[in-house]
Amino acid sequence: MEENLKSSLLAVCETLQKHNVQYMLVGGTAVALNGYYRLSINTSGVLTEKPDLDIWYNPTYENYFNILKVIRDLGKDITEYLDEQNPNPKESFFRFDFEDFSVDILPEIKAPIKFAKANKNKQTV
Fold first, then answer.
1. Where are the chain's structural domains?
2. Distance, CA of 117 to CA of 113 (rounded, Å)
3. C-alpha–C-alpha distance, residues 38 and 49, integer Å
4. Could you tell me which Gene3D superfamilies the record lists for this protein (predicted)?
5. How far apart are CA 119 and CA 125, in angstroms?
6. ∠ at Cα 25 (22, 31), nearest 5°?
7. What pLDDT was estimated at residue 121?
């Protein structure tokens, strides 16, 4: 894994930890951390060299607002999310592009397992 990606990943994870976010890293970067590198796929379905961090978060209200703090600390404007009258964490997907990587923050993934159960079985790398 490239040094730029490692430092970006560490910065993102440190910010998630700082704000007590319940999360798991999933997708291609998680696979790469386990020794199996593959390219990311962009929103158009095309392979890309730009790494994509997929973060699966527990979609509770407390965690949702902690996610907003993380997004703010990463330098993105969260005004539109703070102004929402009825936020729904279970339907709140976020995607942000940065210079060296992009990040998807997901309340659910296509898997036959719920966050709580997966979180109990997660491995820390």
1. 3-121
2. 7
3. 10
4. 3.30.460.40
5. 14
6. 155
7. 86
φ, ψ (nearest 5 deg) of residue 32? -60, -35
CB-count exposure of residue 105 (10 Å: 0-12, 13-18, 19+): buried
CB neighbour burial string for 30-42, b if at least 16 within 10 angstroms, e if fewer? bebeeeeeeebee
Q: What is the pLDDT of residue 48?
A: 72
Q: Is the pTM of this model over 0.70?
A: yes
CB atoms within 10 A of CB 63: 19
Beta-bridged to residue 63, according to DSSP, are none
pLDDT digits (tens, 9 = 90+) for 30-72: 766 666 666 666 667 777 777 788 999 999 999 999 999 999 9
| Statement: residue 87 has pLDDT above 60 | yes
